[in-house]
């Protein structure tokens, strides 16, 4: 069983560049990567321990959302995540 931390509006803040990039890669990997993007992803993932940790964390959340696609909160969160990743690759 996966337990996600409680969320409150006081937790809101702008994601860091590394968080944005991790979200970007989670979304991209979920839809499949072309070979050239796979190399770019592997380079980003190997560039810092933080990248690997964030990718693992966000992938877990994405997987939880994926198991509950009909849940309104999950759908809203997925739209927010996808919007937050636009243009983030660093």
Structure report:
The structure is a single chain. The protein starts with 16 loop residues before the first helix and ends in a 6-residue tail after the last helix. The chain has 4 helices and no strands. The longest helix is centred in the middle third of the chain and has 19 residues, at 49-67. It is globular, with a radius of gyration of 13 Å. α1 packs across α3 and α2 (35-47) crosses α3 (49-67). By secondary structure, it is an all-alpha fold. The model has no long low-confidence stretch (mean pLDDT 78). The chain has one domain (16-84).
> Given the structure, what is the number of helices?
4
Which geometry do the CA atoms define? globular
Query: What is the H/E string?
Result: HHHH
Number of structural units classed as domains: 1
Beta-strand fraction estimate: under 5%
- Could you name the ranges where pLDDT drops below 50 across 5 or more consecutive residues? none
* Terminal-residue CA separation: 32 Å
Q: Main beta sheet: strand number and arrangement?
A: none
> What helical percentage do the residues reach?
55-70%
Q: How would you state the average pLDDT, rounded?
A: 78
Radius of gyration from CA coordinates? 13 Å
């Amino acid at each position: 069983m996966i337990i996600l931390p409680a969320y409150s509006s006081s937790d809101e803040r702008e994601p860091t560049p590394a968080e944005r990039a991790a979200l970007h890669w989670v979304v991209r990997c979920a839809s499949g990567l072309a070979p050239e993007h796979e190399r770019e992803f592997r380079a980003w993932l190997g560039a810092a321990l933080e990248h690997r940790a964030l990718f693992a964390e966000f992938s877990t959340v994405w997987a939880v959302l994926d198991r509950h696609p009909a849940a309104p909160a999950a759908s809203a969160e997925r739209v927010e995540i996808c919007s937050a990743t636009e243009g983030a690759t660093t």
